[in-house]
Specification:
With about 425 residues, this protein is α+β, with helices and mostly antiparallel strands. The chain has ten helices and eight strands. The strands form two sheets. Strands 1-6-5-4 form a four-stranded mixed β-sheet, with helices on one face. A four-stranded antiparallel β-sheet has the order 2-3-8-7, with no helix packed on it.
Amino acid sequence: MPLQVSNYSWQQTSTAVFISVPLRGVSVRDADVFCTENYLKVNCSPFLFEVFLYAPIDDESSKAKIGNNTVVFILHKKEAAMWETLSLSGVDKEMMQRIREKSILQAQERAKEAMEAKAVARREDQKYTLNVMMKIEEEERKKIEEMKENERIKATKELEAWKECQRKAEELKIIQREEKLYHQEKQMEEERKKLKHKCLTGNSASKNFATKGRNSGNIFFEKLKEDNIPAPRSVGSIKISFTPRVFPTALRESQVAEEEEWLHKQAEARRAMNTDIPELCDLKEEEKNPEWLKDKGNRLFATENYLAAINAYNLAIRLNNKIPLLYLNRAACHLKLKNLHKAIEDSSKALEILTPPVADNANARMKAHIRRGTAFCQLELYVEGLQDYEAALKIDPSNKIVQNDAEKIRNIIQGTELESK
């Protein structure tokens, strides 16, 4: 049974009550303080202190301080007045129980109201946070849309500038061709005049010779001489066209058949366009050009935006899957992103298209071998990687960088074999 504390002291003013309750060994952790407007209780085992207050107090602004084996209460009165006593007089057990129950109910209702208010405040905070996040996302979306629009405008301007350069280049070629034809016609006209003048000079000399050597009185002699002179030939020009040689090689090293086959494949690749893509209707005009997409992918690769570059190359390959540089450039992106198996697939596909091997595609074949060899080495397949590097060295034996890398791979393979032994 708890010990009732009766040796407490209290003081008051017209607005506040000060109660000092001595409790031996009391601490903040062990003390259970319960206070309502008419009831005050401190339970600190084995001590119990409770007071049925003379008049109501403002329990929300009242305070309790625990320390030095004492609990000090500062209670603020609801109405300014001096109390006759601290606790009610003539309170029986039944009345005490009613006051306790009423105080507990009041405390529970107040706690419930506080929890509901806290829940409402939390919902308001969540709603406010959600609105703020939605505004931020909307701003981000607008910013992305604006960036995309700016990129589209920039790309359109670049395409228009490229078309304008092409148009000017064509106009320049036409002007140069017309100037060349004009000079040729002028030169032919001059040669025609010279030939005509030469023929006239020859005719005059023949007439003079015939007049001086004449020994008969035939009046038709001069006429006959003139009739026997043939008419001058008509001036004309003969155009000779030669089959252009794109690959200047020595005759003993000629690969005319392979070169012609490669040129034929290149021409077919430029004409091969896949227009059955459902997404084509949503593409802009410049985005339907594989060459433009390849250039865009190269620019994105230069800015280290490898995923966007891969997307550009993917669309270009869907439009035309016969261009080896698209697979070769996409393999470089996969290498940067450590997609090693995809890099090997794209390099192999590029080598498959880069046939037959001629001087025009030598540089691209060497890059394909190096990129596939690099992917093999990063997968620790050094033997396969060395084979690709040696294939690249056969194309360009004087390349020091490839020589050094191949030598490093050989050392790694030899070191691995020695360790395994």
